[in-house]
Amino acid sequence: MSFLRPCAMYSFLVASPSMRWMPCQSGGFFRWPGLDGFMRLLLLALLWTMFSEIHYIPSSSMYPTLRVGDRILVEKASFYIRSPAVNDIVTFRDPTQLSRDKMDGVFIKRIVAKAGDAVEVRNGKLFVNGVPKDEEFIAGPPSYTLELTHVPKGHVYVLGDNRNISYDSHMWGPLPVKNIVGRYVMSWHRPRNI
């Protein structure tokens, strides 16, 4: 059975002394990882599920930053180390629902003000502490007016980038920080027809 023997080209390329330094020549490169490798993979999967989530964008409230159909990666660990900051895009549980299900009514919005700030919307501009904000990322200027609102301790003020159709703090007030699930990291899978 000569067809089972290695060909001359194989003997020349793989068995030559200059190729013996390659890790795949030892056979260890292709071996099953064993129990140690399986435990590492299990630990990695456990950490991935504890500290990150993947969500789907169902509405255009964050357009143009995020589009309908985008998949986003949300990390949940950084807010154990630091407080939410202005311009962070966060996912959170709906503060108007009293549901016990933690994933029922999860939204994504941008933080525009933190505790102690005063927020106001007039003449199509957002004012934080009396200073108009230059927001290049919004879809259009807001068509609504918001009276001066102070953000209490333990809360943030969140608005969608598509201000005129977003269900956000201008409708229900400041968001409690305890409702924040995680921080947006990246997005992918943008449908081409939208």
From TrEMBL:
It holds the Pfam family Peptidase_S26. The keyword Glycoprotein does not apply. Gene3D superfamilies: Umud Fragment, subunit A (2.10.109.10). Keywords: Hydrolase, Protease. CDD domains: S26_SPase_I. SUPFAM superfamilies: LexA/Signal peptidase. The keyword Transcription regulation does not apply. Residues 38-188 form the Peptidase S26 domain. PROSITE patterns: SPASE_I_1, SPASE_I_3. PANTHER family: PEPTIDASE S26 DOMAIN-CONTAINING PROTEIN, SIGNAL PEPTIDASE I. This is Peptidase S26 domain-containing protein. It comes from Stylosanthes scabra. The lineage of its organism: Eukaryota, Viridiplantae, Streptophyta, Embryophyta, Tracheophyta.
